[in-house]
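task queued by scheduler; priority normal; single chain, no ligands, no partner chains; default sampling; output format set to structure tokens
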Amino acid sequence: MRRSVTTLTVSSEGYQGWTVLRVAGEIDLVTGGQIRTELHRLVAEGRRQVVLDLEAVRFCDSSGVGVLIGARRLLRSCSGDLRLVLPPPGGTGPDGSGGAGAGGGHVDRVFTALGLRRLFDIYPDVASAAAPPAPPAPLARPA
């Protein structure tokens, strides 16, 4: 009998003043603690601007969703900023494949089904997530 082993890899790097946490694999009850631990470590080091790149996540269950909501809560509690990278469903996965097997699309579908997209700042890629916000449009002056 062959057993499936849940795997997750988490790595971090700096990008344009943000800390990018790249997550690949499956986020569930077994693996979610890795993300939580890494986020707490980053916050303890004083990093308050975090991009959570979920492009290579193939699966996320309800406990994984709880980890992501907890991440949002943690960064907001210390006046931080959390941005998620979720490629659109049917987009190209990190390995160049597309369709339903593409990473990140699964998390996007879960977020959409649960109505969670409104809670997070979601971007299609790391470059967009780390970009500074657009300046406000100038006010029109009456003629």
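post-processing summary
- The radius of gyration is 16 Å.
- The domain at 8-130 is CATH 3.30.750.24 (Transcription Regulator spoIIAA).
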